[in-house]
Amino acid sequence: MSAILRLESLSKQFVKDDLGIVALRDFTLEIEEAGFVTVLGRSGCGKSTMLNLLAGLIPPSSGTVTYRGEPIVRPRPEIGYLTQSDTLMPWRDVRRNIEMPMEIKGVPAPRRRERAAELIERVGLWGFERHYPRELSGGMRRRVSLARMLVGDPETLLLDEPFGALDAQLRTDLQAELLRLWEGSGQTVVFVTHDIEEALLLGDRVVVLGRLGRVVLDRKIDIPRPRAADEMRVDPGFVALHREMTAALAEGARS
Amino acid sequence: MSSAPPDSAAAPAAETVPIERTWWERRGGTVTVALSRLALVVVLLAVWEWSAERWFDITFTSKPSAIWTRLIEWHQDGVLWANTWVTLEEIVLGFVLGSAAGALAGFLLASAPRVYRVLDPFVMALYSIPKVALAPLFIVWFGIGTNMKVLLAAATVFFLVFLNTAAGVREVDRGLVDAVRLMGGTKRDIALKVILPSSMTGMLTGLKVAVPYALIGAVIGELVASNRGLGYLINDAAAQFDTAGVFATLVVLSVIAALLNLVVGLFDRWVGRWKPLEART
Fold first, then answer.
1. Contact between chains at A80 and B182 (C-beta distance less than 8 A)
2. How many CB pairs under 8 A join A and B?
3. What architecture (CATH level 2) is domain A34-59+73-78+155-255?
4. Does A81 sit within 8 Å of B1, measured CB to CB?
5. Is residue B1's pLDDT more than 60?
6. Quick check: is B54 in a domain?
7. Which among A3, A102, B28, B214 could disulfide-bond with B95, CB atoms 3.0 to 4.6 Å apart, if both were Cys?
């Protein structure tokens, strides 16, 4: 498998008054095509900064980010990014929110309507097309965001703790939905989380980040799919992995 | 991307239950409020009418029946409509001109933060000048005709709409801007699809605040120098100790204000239809 995303000796610092606050230092990572990589780390370890760099929202202070060999200097439509917070337009209803990326691309209205209906069906929001974001529950808003990201058929999905704010049951449901949407699609997924179980449940590969984006652990997860959370919890292999991750997170926090 | 239909994890479609409500349950609240308002007006007018000749000198306080008589008289000899029309035209023109210029300037300037920073203290200084104090200057510049009153009203309205629109533009959620950038949107897409709609709330606040100021601008202009309009009518009536005439004119002015508020309110409801009901005013 070839690397689709490559981050090379990447550093990012934010300016505050006369100080540069370092978020990432000398970070190197390769992500291969069609893989599901989960990035595990505590809050403040530079996970979100990494995704913002991958998405092309912010420029790196030094180092390079390349996508299929091309440097990323601005957001690219083939990379979809689901941010931690909801960024749905509050004045647009569900359907018009989902149509928005197509509107910007200049897709004609009838085609937009059709494609939006397809996505609404796929994320299970049938009957809510005319609702505004404020009238939806947190879980439903996440589905709308997911649909809006998927409507442009991105090759690569960047997900930043997408289900962090949801209740456990809903999170399990949406994780299963995400896997169902991903399997066989050939899409590359980078999924950032601070939840060990979520990382193991979803990823082909888990990268554990320590402070300033130091890679503490990078390992393949070969638990066969489909992975059922309930059964996994008592599986000795999973328990061993869980322990390994916990140790890695603790080590990452120390240094 | 698999296109399997959503499984049980999918949310069920919106469930609606018909609720049987009587006419009173549905409209009762509104009706009670309307009736209470009516009762309040009737009581106040009755007290005024009854007490006018007993407790107060009618030369100073007039009384509702006299005001009504004066309105009818003015209606019959055409004084009322001729003058109302003049003032209404000044108010509406001033309001539209001032708010259009204010909204446009607020939107453009706030989109260029550096320019805004440079101009900010000057804008605030101009804003702080009492617009009434500009009236003599405006007379010199534009004469004592309609233009002077329209521009005086517009100058007041401009700053209120400008400042509120600019505040709305600067408070735009960065996350929404980034969302459009991620979709491959250009600067133009960001301006039209994010900044414009989200600055509407600020602009509408400006419009609502500006309604009474449009009236102030026009009426002050007429009070200072004019031979027609409601401001002139007030001056004229007061000069003849005709308090009924002054009050009659004030009644007309408040009706105009109420109508303008209604129009702005309807516009607000239409623009803000995405907001939850409790956030609407």
1. yes
2. 98
3. 3-Layer(aba) Sandwich (3.40)
4. no
5. no
6. no
7. B214
The two structure tokens encoding residue B21: 């409500």
Q: Is A229 on the interface with B (CB under 8 A)?
A: no
Closest Cβ opposite residue B2 in set A57, A173, A181: A181
* Neighboring chain B residues of A105 at a CB cutoff of 8 Å: 183-184
Q: Which residue of A has its CA nearest to B197?
A: A91
**How close are the terminal C-alpha atoms of chain B, in Å?**
45
User: Tokens standing for B245?
Assistant: 């005439």
Rounded mean pLDDT, B141-156: 90
Q: Which residues contact A134 (CB under 8 A, 6 or more apart)?
A: A90, B274, B275, B276
Angstrom distance (rounded) from CA A156 to CA A153 = 9
Q: What share of chain A is helix, strand, coil (3-state, %, to 5)?
A: 40, 25, 35
Position B281 confidence tier, pLDDT thresholds 50, 70, 90:
very low
Residue B41 lies in a domain: no
- Amino acid type, B193: K
Contacts of B200 in chain A (CB under 8 A): 91
The answer to whether B158 and B102 have CB atoms below 8 angstroms apart is yes
CA B77 distance to own-chain centroid: 31
Q: Is residue B195 part of a domain?
A: no
**Which CATH number fits the domain that encloses residue B209?**
1.10.3720.10
Q: Which two tokens stand for residue B144?
A: 């004592």
The reply to whether residue B178 touches residue A57, judged by beta carbons under 8 angstroms, is: yes
A33-48 burial code (b ≥16 CB/10 A, e <16)? ebbbbbbbbeeebbbb
CB contacts, 8 Å: A187 with chain B: 1
Locate A109 and state its tokens: 């209205």
The whole-number pLDDT of residue A226 equals 80
The domain of B103 spans 78-171+200-279
Partner-chain contact B6 A100, CB within 8 Å: no
Query: What band does B277 get if pLDDT is binned at 50, 70 and 90?
Result: low
Work out how many domains chain B is built from and give that number. Answer: 1
For chain A, where do the domains classified as CATH 3.40.50.300 start and end?
34-59+73-78+155-255
Residues of A with CB below 8 A from B195's CB? Answer: none
Cβ atoms of B131 and B210 within 8 Å: the answer is: no
SS3 A10: strand
Q: Is A154 on the interface with B (CB under 8 A)?
A: no
- Residue A60: asked if its preceding bond is cis (omega within 30°), the reply is no
ipTM of the complex: 0.86
